[in-house]
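Data deposition worksheet. Section B asks for the primary sequence of the deposited chain exactly as it was used as input, without tags or linkers unless they were present during the calculation. Section C holds the resulting structure in token form. Section D is free text for depositor observations; keep each observation to a single sentence. Incomplete worksheets are returned to the depositor.
Section A, Depositor: J.P.
Section B:
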Amino acid sequence: MSTTTIKTPWNEYNFTRTNNDVNGNPRYIVHYLALGLKSCASNDLTRRAGLSLYCGKGYGGGFVFQSYNLQTTAEFFEDLGLCRVAPKPRKTNSKEVTQAVQKHILKIMNTSEYPGHDGSDKKSLEIVLTAFANQYLYPSNIKRYGSYQKCFTEWCKGLPSVLDVEYRTDGVLKLMKSWGLPQPKGKDDSDSFELYLNLVYMNITRMAKDHKIDYMWILQKNLSTAN
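Section C:
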């Protein structure tokens, strides 16, 4: 039997492949301790998760389940509370979140068709910030929204071609969860979307600093010519 290791931001699961069910669906075994259970006994929670006691030989204390996507299954278990370590939101400025958001930004910058693009991250950041300044950073918007950051998030809501931000609700929630930032209780989808956009802004400006880009000059230049 082969074993597949699946990682989430908080836990690591070892799922062992076993025989398919009578309908040919793939099945896996997971140890009860990996699910944070005190004993290998069926209960309402395990039944809701689609877990059945494994009765085969050679694997003690296991549950068997059907799955076509182990990553999704692991996240489903966690959503139900079946995990060794309960998911806890990370700090938005933590190293893990910062690295994940910056990796996402590098993926969504769409600057190859813009003049001056040379394939470097530095030039791509300059192009994105310049596009933001030229397309949205006007005195009237500064007066309306009160800050560069708020202007940036509003600009992103218009889905600029230079920055392919995630706009689908399920996509945003999946991203945030993968970064260790699940939607808190009492918050709705719009709150997660706003946090996502704010994280993009904060990390784009941080990346600009790291690349020694005078991003404030880029943003203020457009304002000075408008006055």
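Section D:
The chain has two domains: 3-80, 95-226.
The mean pLDDT is 91.
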